[in-house]
Specification:
The complex is a heterodimer. Chain A contains six helices and no strands. Chain A is mostly helical. Chain B is globular. The chains are: A mainly alpha, B alpha+beta.
């Protein structure tokens, strides 16, 4: 019972910290354009860097909780998310040479290092906290993509929609693992 | 009395020397000065709004993940002055309890005329920040990582 209350409480916290709780959902209609602006290119580069945070958190927590399969299943998918974002950057001539994705958990941009450190520290607190961190990341990813895709060209929109669909699948996986943990 | 005034003047001069947005390197130094002194108002001046808001929300996240009431506040960040003050105060407290960071070896690489990347070491680790020219000053801008113009 205490465990269930704790889970319910943590879920509330996570939902509250995500703007997903503000009513953003799967059926949002987004307008598209044929123009890739400078601002769009800046957004693509930043999203590429943000995707690395999710992948690295899952790799780190997956090593810390080796019996929790959800991390292993999702981290390869997160690599595909990064590859998709990289593909868009290359297509639109966005130089990503300043981003080094080889070192797991290492970020040259201080705010991304802080984000990674905070999420991993929270995930280390307990196996359940780790799963909650996964849920938080996916909710945040969905929200970020919804903000980023406004007025993007249709091909970018299509990729973002695929990324969002992937994030919804990951979200379901984390929620199933959380449910299983509470039983 | 004169001694106190002189010491105060010396400190203000030293402080002022740390705060300069006239060059990208000066801006990065100012960013760390603001962080190390938990000066949120200065931090806001050093960064473009989107990057400042993102920074504040990331720094507030650790508290939000462990405090349901605060997480509700953070969700409303940007919607009211009162809430923003509470978030800023929480971040200020976090910064006050964090060890100061030292930066060295700053190297500026222009990314066109209005952007500049700064590579440096933070406590010995490689870091980089992007800056963009906003009117007459340079500001930290996380999204200015591409060469333009």
């Amino acid at each position: 019972m205490i465990k269930k209350i704790a889970i319910a409480s943590l879920t509330l916290v996570l939902l509250a910290t995500s703007s997903f709780a503000a009513g953003k959902g799967k059926n949002k209609t987004v307008s598209s354009t044929s123009t890739m602006t400078q601002e769009h290119k800046d957004t693509l580069l930043f999203i590429y860097q943000e995707e690395k945070v999710a992948r690295d958190v899952y790799m780190t927590l997956g090593q810390y909780y080796p019996n929790q399969n959800v991390y292993q299943n999702i981290q390869s998918s997160e690599q595909k998310h990064m590859d998709s974002a990289q593909g868009l950057c290359e297509k639109y001539g966005v130089d990503i040479s300043n981003v080094d994705e080889s070192d797991i958990g290492v970020f040259v941009i201080p705010v991304l290092q802080e984000l990674y450190d905070t999420l991993v520290a929270q995930g280390y607190q307990s196996e359940l906290s780790g799963l909650m961190v996964g849920e938080y990341i996916e909710l945040t990813d969905i929200d970020d993509l919804e903000h980023a895709e406004v007025d993007m060209p249709s091909d970018v929109l299509k990729v973002f929609e695929n990324l969002k669909a992937g994030s919804y699948n990951h979200l379901d996986a984390f929620r199933s693992a959380i449910d299983a943990y509470s039983k | 009395m004169r001694l106190i005034i002189a010491i105060g003047l010396l400190f203000s001069i030293l402080g002022a020397a740390e705060i300069s947005l006239e060059t990208p390197v000066g801006t990065v130094k100012s960013y760390y000065y603001a962080m190390n002194h938990a000066d949120i108002d200065l931090l806001e001046k050093v960064m473009v709004k989107e990057s400042f808001d993102m920074t504040l929300q990331v720094w507030a996240l650790s508290k939000a993940l462990n405090d349901k009431a605060f997480s509700q506040l953070l969700k409303q960040y940007g919607n009211s002055v009162e809430i923003d003050v509470q978030v800023r105060d929480a971040v200020k407290e976090k910064l006050q309890n964090s060890p100061a960071k030292t930066i060295t070896d700053l190297i500026a690489t222009p990314l066109g005329g209005s952007r500049c990347m700064i590579r440096y070491k933070e406590n010995g680790k490689d870091k980089q920040l992007f800056t963009s020219r906003e009117q007459k000053v340079w500001k930290i801008n996380y999204k200015a990582g591409r060469k333009v113009d």
